[in-house]
Specification:
Elements: E1 5-7, H1 32-43, E2 62-71, E3 86-90, E4 93-95, E5 97-101, E6 107-114, H2 123-134, E7 142-148, E8 152-154, H3 162-169, H4 180-191, E9 197-204, H5 215-224, E10 228-234, E11 236-239, E12 244-247, H6 251-260, E13 264-267, H7 273-285, E14 288-292, E15 301-308, E16 314-316, E17 320-322
Parallel strand pairs: 6-7, 6-9, 9-10, 10-13
Antiparallel strand pairs: 1-2, 2-14, 2-16, 3-4, 3-15, 5-14, 7-8, 11-12, 15-17
Helix pairs in contact: 2-3, 2-7, 4-5, 5-6
Length: 341
């Protein structure tokens, strides 16, 4: 998904690929004896090698899709770059960009909120802030809302109806512990099998205290399933019955956002919540979609870096991809045609 490895057969017909000459009449004038000799030569293994010794590389027939955000030195979104401004480093080698679009692409999201006891005094403000994100959905988008505390809640149905989702926010309950990792895992479960750009937007004001799932598991799942995680953290204070306790958001939020190409926002005041949820929806509308064909699909994790050749600008994108034969996601069929320069 977000940044999915997509089969070329699943991409819209409007996408074109550099060097695509599959209809050219190759070998039309090659003689039969020469053809037979070539087949024999390529089928004979080199001396001293066996089937077990030869690496099981396969040539690429897929396109790796990567969503990228670009900001200037003041943190403002930069939406008007073209393909020539970007480059992709695939494991130390420059990859040819075969897909490019700066058009807004639809997405499916889970908005997962921390409603543990430390948020009791601010939970209504948090819900109103999350409503700012939901109000920005288009007819092509889908979302669910959920919460984590001592249990996990999910609204259960993906919809583009902002009013229905805001109503579901009102049903989210407050609990005691903070099952942050379980909340992210439940969000990934809900997004499994959905095509197109998939987003988890998670908010928390503290460390995980009660999850059954460890952070490494959810990080690897988000990375391998190609889900982009946006995270909002808040420093807060609450009275625990005996004293005032100050909490800080888990460092796991920043790490999972960075690994998957999402954004991380750490807040000091609750009045910053609504503008930050609005910022996330603006970023999702400003993503660049890039694609390239990896040279090998060896089933391994490959390092990935997207660069932009503009002074003072920073690009955010996921840092790796699994060069597997099977795609975790693909372009959403709701997507608009994608142009390639």
């Amino acid at each position: 998904m977000d940044g999915a490895v997509a089969s070329t057969a699943s991409l819209p017909a409007a996408i074109s690929f550099a060097g695509d000459r599959t209809n050219e009449p190759r070998m039309r004038h090659m003689s039969w004896p020469l053809t037979l000799l070539m087949l024999v030569l390529v089928s004979v293994p080199r001396p001293g090698t066996s089937a077990q010794d030869r690496p099981a590389f396969r040539s690429s027939v897929r396109t790796v899709l990567v969503y990228a955000t670009v900001v200037d030195a003041r943190g403002r979104l930069v939406p008007d770059l073209d393909q020539t401004n970007f480059s992709i480093d695939d494991g130390g080698k420059t990859a040819a960009i075969s897909v490019f679009s700066n058009d807004s692409q639809p997405f499916t999201a889970v908005v997962m909120l921390d409603t543990s006891a430390s948020m009791a005094a601010s939970v209504e403000l948090l819900k109103r802030a999350a409503g700012q994100f939901l109000s920005g959905l288009t007819p092509a988008d889908r979302a669910q809302v959920g919460a984590f505390n001592d249990r996990i809640q999910l609204s259960g149905t993906f919809t583009n109806r902002a009013d229905d989702l805001i109503s579901e926010l009102g049903k989210l309950e407050i609990g005691n512990p903070t099952r942050l990792h379980d909340g992210i895992a439940a969000s990934l479960d809900a997004l499994r099998g959905i095509e197109g750009r998939r987003i988890v937007l998670v908010f928390s004001d503290g460390e995980d205290t009660a999850s059954r799932t460890d952070f490494r598991t959810v990080l690897e799942r988000a990375r391998d399933e190609e889900v982009m995680v946006y995270a909002i953290g808040l420093e807060s204070e609450h009275f625990d019955g005996t004293r005032v306790v100050k909490t800080r958001p888990s460092r796991d939020l920043k790490r999972i956002a960075g690994e998957t190409g999402g954004g991380y926002f750490e807040l000091l005041k609750t009045v910053e919540l609504a503008p930050t949820f609005s910022r996330v929806i603006q970023e999702l509308r400003s993503h660049y979609l890039l694609g390239f064909a990896p040279t090998v699909l060896d089933g391994k994790l490959h390092k990935l870096e997207v660069r932009v050749a503009k002074p003072g600008m920073t690009v955010r994108a996921r840092k790796n991809y699994a060069a597997s034969l099977e795609a975790s996601g693909g372009l959403d069929q709701r997507s608009q045609p994608i142009s390639r320069d």
